Amino acid sequence: MLPPININRDSESASLLTLPLKRKTLKEKNVEKHISIDTLIPFGPVILRTTIPSYVVDNLNAHCDEILADPQKLKDYDYSGQLAGNVKKEFKLSDKFIKKEENFYNILRSMAQRMLAVDLRGSKDQLSFAYLRNAPPGTTNVDRKYITGCQIITVWCVSQWAGDFNPLHIHSGDLSGVLYLKVPEGLEEEYKNEDHHPAVGDIQFIAGTPQAFNRNNMQVSPRVGELHVFPAWLHHTAYPFRTKNQERRSISFNIVYDIDLEKFKNEKMLVEKE
Based on CB atoms within 10 Å of each CB, which residue in 47, 81, 139, 167 is the most buried? Predict the structure, then answer.
């Protein structure tokens, strides 16, 4: 487990709790013989989840409120033409603001670092990443040792209202994520009124096709302050809701890993010469 991340707020500090997917070891049971059973997760994508401090959420909401209240700013920062969503208000957050919002910026970078951790990848011999965005053309795998950092390339806000939705889609970059800033109070009541498979306002992640002994999707209800980070290629969709005059507000982003191309090329050339 990586050490907690310290987030500074004036003289105060808070701990960011990361909640990676875990391998669970079942307790031994008294059967004919004592056996232990491990639940392994060697296949499929990893999704990281955490809850960020409320004051970080407040700062992001204040900035989004400022843009949403100004028609000209909303027009200037409009990002809907670049996105898949059937949503009327989607706007980009400037790089300057994101870097100024240091806590949020550092949380995203820390989550990207966590995605590279050995315990999420099986073993040190398997730490290769296929088709990273910044990899040299024609490269199938890049070993972890060549990854030197990451860049947050795009951050945008989705202001979703009754009837708005995001169809099944993927993102660009290496990693993507979603952070919830506002959730309609009426969603819980809508859930109760659904006759089957309630999904109002939820996000659903889908990987592959249904098979026996295999789960190919995960559905998550939005909660304020909850942040999910996942591979950019992972298909996902956001369902609509019906509650009038209430907003489901989220922030999404794309991240790419930096690769030491000189070291990569030099070492590859040495291997080829041998």
Answer: 47
